[in-house]
Design brief:
Blueprint (H helix, E strand, L loop, with lengths): L9 H13 L2 H52 L6 H4 L7 H10 L13 E6 L5 E11 L6 E11 L2
Antiparallel strand pairs: 1-2, 2-3
Length: 157
Amino acid sequence: MSDPTHRVSATQWVDRQSRRLQRGGFLLEALVALLIFSFGMVAVIGLHGRAVRHVNEAQYRAEASSLAQATIAAMRTSDPATLAVRYDAAAGGSDYRALLDQTKRLPGVTDKRNAPDVTISAGPSDTSREVGLTVYWEVAGNSTVHRHAVNAVVAGN
């Protein structure tokens, strides 16, 4: 005969089986939570990296714009008849050299690479000139050459 002290009720047997099947369940839940958290952190780090890159690009655009506007303003204070000589890149005009030195603050600009373009042509009147100024830069790790172009009419007073 069977010993009545070793008898297990059906409920106790189900509880024991249930506990046995659930062993490691908490560990599995913790690992899944850690995996989800890791994916979230990778996404946040990627987003932060993109934000930093966009801030740097905006800074370079603002610097290029400021430089171009300052150069156009300096052209407006001088004699339009002498602009072509002073901003001639091939002849090494003094004002062009100064512009080139200033654009070297932008990434990827050297004497030969990404140098600014200055075009000066006859304006709508005899005492005016049409000026085109393009400033280039190239961010490290990105082969795209960025540019900021400004066109203006410079007239003599």
